[in-house]
Description:
Blueprint: H1 19-33, H2 38-51, H3 76-86, E1 91-93, H4 94-103, H5 108-115, E2 123-125, H6 126-137, H7 141-152, E3 163-164, H8 165-179, H9 184-199, E4 204-205, H10 207-210
Antiparallel strand pairs: 1-2, 3-4
Amino acid sequence: MPLPETMFCAQQIKIPPELPDILKQFTKAAIRTQPHDVLQWAAAYFSALSKGEPLPVKERIEMPLATEKADAGLTPGLLKILHKQLSPKGMVNVAELKEKWKHLCLPEAQLKAILQLDNFGEEVEWMKVLALGCSVLGGSLLSSMKHACEILTRDPEGGAARIPFETFSFLYSYLASIDGEIPEEKTEAFLHRIKEQADKQMGMVLLRNFLTQPSTLF
């Protein structure tokens, strides 16, 4: 025999006072991030929220280019999320990287392809993974560096996208070595010219310092 349905009056139902704001912020985050799998992303969102970790949320909506599919994979916004989550660790366990990657509903095959570009073990240096991610986004070395600067900078969006020369030098040198077709002396000469400009800018590299370099060389 089925149990009688319990009836409650409005006075008996207590809504936690923080619930409306939590749901409001979650909804705004989902709209901004546009996850391919909302349920999988939501689980990661509330897990991070409960642990006080950086949330898997984009800073703004990214509109795909006409030549891109909406679920094409890694985007600058998603790579920036991963940077916020993983950069404090420095060295990252590959298993954790795969988990964060999955939380953003990114293709597993894409991460596998990125990790195959270098001889990584069970742990990876996050800045190297960031550099390789930027190389996926950019069609050239300088385009990859542009993405890196825009992800790493503390400048407002649309600004100079400044980053320290030491960071720029590390990323550029690493990607040039992965490329394997740029002579070491050209890499050193390029970075020397960039450093001369950075020394006049409090040690910071700006986008205009290298996007005007001859693309035939780099």
